[in-house]
Amino acid sequence: MARVVVDVMLKPEILDPQGRAVAGSLRRLGLTGVTDVRQGKQFIIDLDGVVEGARLELIETLAAELLSNPVIEDYKLQVIEDPA
Amino acid sequence: MARVVVDVMLKPEILDPQGRAVAGSLRRLGLTGVTDVRQGKQFIIDLDGVVEGARLELIETLAAELLSNPVIEDYKLQVIEDPA
User: Fold this and answer.
1) Residue numbers of the domain that contains A25
2) What distance in Å separates the CA atoms of residue A78 and residue A80, rounded to the nearest whole number?
């Protein structure tokens, strides 16, 4: 069994109004020194078997084209074999 | 400078229709062995100074009550001092 965690985040040059709203709320609720907040998505995918070779390549492609929008988002993929 | 990463995920006992839809798409696009997909949110908060003591406690409270909905969501908080 394996777990793949895909974090999807707006590219740094793309404005993030949700993140900006969260930053404003954090400041209003007393948190000082907030310089930036970005809000993204996280997908946790549980799979049978091992993730390597062609299967890992397919997951990379799906993360880049299905789970994220390559025009405005970056993704980060992490494979955890045998998650607790 | 410090970075706080807050991952917010639906509690395991709460149905996740978005995750289920993603699981269906992954399977249709040829990924075998998918047993479960959960979709959550990720907040990346950049802050001046260090995160410890009362400030860390405030961030924990805000993560539990502003960034997540404690009725249906769990959160995971990670502090990264001096992110690259």
Assistant:
1) 2-81
2) 7
